[in-house]
Give the backbone structure.
Amino acid sequence: MSAGGSVEPGPPGAAAAPSPASAPARVFRPLSAEDEGQQPTEIESLCMNCYRDGVTRLLLTTIPFFREVIVSSFSCEHCGWSNTEVQSAGRIQDQGVRYTLTVRAAEDMNREVVKTDSATTRIPELDFEIPAFSQKGALTTVEGLISRAIAGLEQDQPTRRANEEAVADRLDEFIVRLKELRQVASPFTLIIDDPSGNSFVENPHAPQKDDALVITHYNRTPQQEEMLGLQAEAPEEKPQEEDLRNEVLQFNTNCPECNAPAQTNMKLVQIPHFKEVIIMATNCEYCGHRTNEVKAGGAVEPLGTRITLRITDPSDMTRDLLKIMEGKMKAHFIMNDPAGNSYLQNVYAPEDDPEMKVEHYKRTFDQNEELGLNDMRTEGYETGAAPR
């Protein structure tokens, strides 16, 4: 329906302006059948069935223990077409809501229900579901919801019976079961799940707890946010850390031999059972000079390292380091590194190598002097602390 005319005046006194001494009239008044002053506003509107003028009635009201809603009703005196709808007068709530009502008696059928168009209605005992956005919002009762479903199923039964009789027969059986529920022939469960959070099922014992009604609030999924037309917050993209182990970095430098422009390649390599090291290689195209250098990828170790290898077999010469002889005689190979960053392959790793001895020792003053550690100060630089 669409508005296509002027607002008709209500009954005398219903829309009268309050006197200066009187309190201002409330726009949304509590829903009550005894309130004679609560009259709907009438608007001349275009009928979408016969395209002649009909009447839309708007009622702004407040549902007790719920919130403000707008009830609209359209009727056309020319073709008899009518339509009703209820909309929340507030915003979409921060969380969705799910009402689970156990219907045990006829009194439960009279509970007021606000069902928005984004709500899904389910009756698990019948495996029955009314999907979201398949119906307009409604201000009704539990009995009204079931009656509305029955009317919707019965509407096209004559056509189905003419074209698909088997389907129509199955629907007839299902309609009978819905009518039995309407008479509360046996207890059943009614679930109204609304991601917008604006649906409502009355608690007749309010503000006391209702043992037959369970209300659950939940956070919407991204799919539900999209269904409601809300733009979900995009998760913050974490900056991807560069994996230098799989890349060879290149930078410009000068040849240490002829000082001509050259290029140095650098790669970070993880040595198994040791640590990361940096391999650097420079190749000069002008003089042919080549250099290779290995540097520790971490800091200087607290202790120096002394590695002693007993060379007893030619296979010991294949360990990752360098060749010092043909391996035809037994020998001891000792590598002493005060920085603690040297490495000799352990072919038995992760087990201990019976032919290799690794010792960690405390550096002498002269060894620290060679490494430039004696003049290095790392204490007293914290915020507010004076350096020693």
